[in-house]
Amino acid sequence: SDPDPLQDFCVADLSAGAAKVNGFACKDPNTVKASDFLFKGLNKPGLTNNTFNINVTSGDVESFPGINTLGISMFRVDFAQGGLNPPHSHPRATEIVYLMKGTLIASFVTSNNVLYSQKLVKGDVFVIPRGLVHFQQNIGYSKAVTIVAFNSHNPGAQVIPLSLFGSSPPISEDVLAKAFQISNEEVKNMSSKFTPP
Ligand code: GLV
Ligand code: MN
Fold it and tell me: Is the ipTM of this complex over 0.90?
């Protein structure tokens, strides 16, 4: 859902001083090579020994400058057994998920709080409408791997537990206590899990 490009391509100039408008400045076309349009590594498993037991390998514009302004990107997500891609939303993109390996439950919640949940098996494709909160859980007995694509070169991700309990500076305890109808002690406990040390 990015705006239409105004030229054939605009390989991002990620250098520090370069102007940013709606995206990144373009590299001088005379210096653009075929390899600017190549992104390698989505065959490589990511490390999943972490809080959610997943790994996201990001192919957004920052790691793949050739997609700058083209309204598209591709990621890989690895799930260990029991791994959870926690509730999150992509403010700038619809997501399409291809399950390459394993078994997942993929779910999203609409803006009027209806939950759509679907079991996916290898080869299935599932779509997550732009901006909606969604999550995937590995319910199989082995690893799961997805390849996901977005209609934005910079989909962004707001991970709900991190946005609310791990922001910097933190959201006031009273706000979180009232919002979730829990005690300040419970807020402290939740925050301790998501606040960077
Ligand atoms: C990644 O953003 C995913 O939802 O799989
Ligand atoms: Mn997602």
Answer: yes
Adjacent-strand bridge partners of 138: 104
The model's pTM is 0.92
Q: Of 43, 29, 11, which Cα lies nearest the Cα of 145?
A: 43
- Tell whether ligand 1 has an atom less than 6 A from the beta carbon of residue 85: yes
User: Each residue of 104-129: pLDDT tens digit?
Assistant: 999 999 999 999 999 999 999 999 99
Which of 28, 22, 27, 26 is CA-nearest to residue 4?
Answer: 22
The answer to whether 83 and 103 have CB atoms below 8 angstroms apart is no
Q: Which of 95, 96, 145, 160 to mutate to test the pocket of ligand 1 (most atoms within 8 A of CB)?
A: 95
Residue 111 neighbours by CB under 8 Å, 6+ apart:
132
